[in-house]
Each structure stands twice: as structure tokens, then as C-alpha cells.
Amino acid sequence: MSNYITENDNWAPKTTPDGTESVIIDEGSGVYKFASLANVLKNVPVGTVSLPGMAFSGDLDTGLYRVSANSLGIATGGVAAVTIDSSSNVSIPNGNLIVGETSGFFSLGAATELTIASGVVTATKSIHSIDTESDGATDDLDTISGGVENAVLMIYAVNSARDVVAKDGTGNLRLNGDFTMDSELDMLTLRKYGSNWCEVCRSSNA
């Protein structure tokens, strides 16, 4: 089956005598046939980045293709623009993420709170507020689990009355010395490198 619907006056959905809504498919060499819309959508060719399985008439190197099992790609001009893998990770391999162009902001979204347990928290996104174990007056943060290679993480104390002390070298934090976050305004930014979280910058804003 070709990867496009013929560009002529008959491409629009038709209802066959059995009541099935169908479209005309160009099989090549002047051969055409009816196919149900459901079958067309379920049997889109795998395609490639240079010839996507679902493309546009007159622009056949732009569209959707299957990268691998359970992975989807979007091609523009025969180049991979966006890929989504089986874990729902989104990559932009050959371009830049532009938000709003002139007036937009790039946002990490709302921070979620993590509570230290025996010196450890598990990051699940790029910004978290950190609380001490059992709401103690102070607590050491030794290790941050989670994250992927080159992930960026920003953390801050959830409450100015409870100090969070990020410890250098005790666990997997590689910092320019210990850092006490004793205000909700303090911030520590980290980058994941191997199994470690390495300091990018810190700000003590109280």
C-alpha cells in the first residue's frame, strides 16, 4: 500500500454499499482500490526519516515514521525533528526548542516536594522543594536518586524554618563544599553526570 491518498477529486471518504466509510488508495501503476479508514490508519507503512510512512502530498519527506518498536519520529525535510521513545522521552536531535519566540518563557512547571529519608531523596522532575525528615530543624541531604545523564535539577528548602544541608561527597553530590539552604529563596542547581549530581551553581538569597 502506498503511503499517501491520491490527490484527486475522489480522495474524500466514501461510503461503500456495506456502509463502510472508505478512501481511494493509489497502489501505483494506475491501480486504485477502496480501503476502510480504520485499515488505512492501522496499517500506515513504517516509513523512514527520509520517506515517512504518513506524509503530505507534495512534501513526502515531512511527516510521521516509526523509529523502532514503540518509538515515534517526526521528520521535516527528511531530517529527524522530534523523536519519542518507548519510555515517552522526547528528543529534539537536530534543532532547538523555541518557546514563545518573542514573549514566551521556558518553565520547569510547579515544584513537587521531596522529604529526606535517611539522607536520600528521589528526583522525578527538574525542580523540587526539599523538606527535612520528620520536620526536623535541620537535616543532611547526602544522595539524590533518579535522573538521567545530563539532566538538570534545581532544589530549594521548602520551609525557611527547616534547614536542608546539601553534603559534598558524603553520597552522590559533588559540590563546591557543603551548602546550607536555610531559606526558601536559596537554590542549588545540579547536573547529572554518571551516578553523581554535580553542582552547576548555588544562590544564597536570604
Can you tell me about this structure?
With 206 residues, the protein is an all-beta fold. It has 3 domains: 43 residues, no CATH class; 57 residues, no CATH class; 92 residues, Sandwich (Jelly Rolls). It is built from 1 helix and 19 strands. A 6-stranded mixed β-sheet has the order 9-11-14-18-19-16, with no helix packed on it. A hairpin with a 2-residue loop joins strand 18 and strand 19. The N terminus is likely disordered.
In short, what is this structure?
With 206 residues, this protein is mainly β. The chain has one helix and 19 strands.
Question: Which SSEs are present, and which pair or pack?
Answer:
Layout: E1 14-15, E2 21-28, E3 31-36, H1 37-42, E4 54-56, E5 59-68, E6 71-76, E7 79-84, E8 90-91, E9 112-115, E10 120-122, E11 127-131, E12 138-141, E13 143-145, E14 152-157, E15 163-166, E16 173-174, E17 179-181, E18 187-193, E19 196-203
Parallel strand pairs: 9-11, 10-13, 11-14, 12-15, 16-19
Antiparallel strand pairs: 1-2, 2-3, 4-5, 5-6, 6-7, 7-8, 14-18, 15-17, 18-19
Biggest beta sheet attributes: 6 strands, mixed
**SSE topology string:** EEEHEEEEEEEEEEEEEEEE
**Residues in β-strands, percent:** 35-45%
By CATH reckoning, the class of the largest domain would read: Mainly Beta
Secondary-structure content class:
mainly beta
Gross morphology is elongated
SS summary, helix count:
1
What percentage of residues falls in helices of 4 or more residues? under 10%
Query: What is the third-level CATH name, the topology of the largest domain?
Result: Jelly Rolls
Q: Poorly predicted ranges (pLDDT <50, ≥5 residues)?
A: 1-11
Strand order of the largest sheet: 9-11-14-18-19-16
Give the total of beta strands: 19
